[in-house]
Inverse folding.
């Protein structure tokens, strides 16, 4: 059983690795605006789509593995850190599903609205906070 749980924990951490590439990748893409920046909409859109799907895959894997791990703690971890972690995970989940749901219609209607970069920032800051909170929640 401990082997299985270690594997589930590895899945949790690996999904975090993939999720962080997607969350931070979007931020770096947004910051990559120099004088040398050549317009490459096809390249950017392909990268954004990869990040979007990666985020979706990662957050689903994080919930799946997280719920299994949580069973070993009797279903919940009391205290501020874990509660705050789950609230931020819920926020990230909402942002990721919203982006994945809306992206095709934004693409058809002249690109994403101007608040989308703000959502990317909220997403990335939430991820960094969640990892910090997880460290405190589980010592
Ligand atoms: C963006 C989403 C998430 C991130 C970035 C994340 C990150 C982490 C990290 C870094 C750890 C290791 C902490 C340590 O061992 O000190 C951890 C452990 C854990 N996470 Fe998550 N997590 C996420 C979502 C979830 C969800 C949705 C749940 C439950 C529903 C969950 C439940 C747990 C549990 C129970 C552990 C302890 C595992 C153990 O050591 O036995 N996590 N998480």
């Amino acid at each position: 059983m401990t082997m299985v749980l270690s594997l589930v924990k590895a899945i949790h951490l690996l999904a975090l690795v993939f999720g962080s590439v997607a969350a931070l990748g979007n931020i770096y893409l947004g910051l990559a605006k120099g004088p040398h920046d050549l317009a490459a909409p096809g390249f950017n859109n392909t990268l954004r789509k990869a990040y979007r799907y990666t985020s979706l895959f990662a957050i689903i894997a994080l919930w799946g593995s997280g719920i299994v791990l949580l069973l070993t703690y009797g279903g919940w971890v009391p205290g501020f850190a874990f509660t705050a972690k789950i609230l931020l995970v819920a926020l990230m989940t909402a942002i990721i599903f919203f982006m994945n749901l809306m992206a095709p219609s934004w693409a058809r209607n002249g690109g994403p609205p101007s608040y989308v970069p703000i959502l990317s920032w909220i997403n990335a800051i939430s991820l960094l906070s969640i990892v910090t909170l997880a460290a405190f929640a589980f010592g």
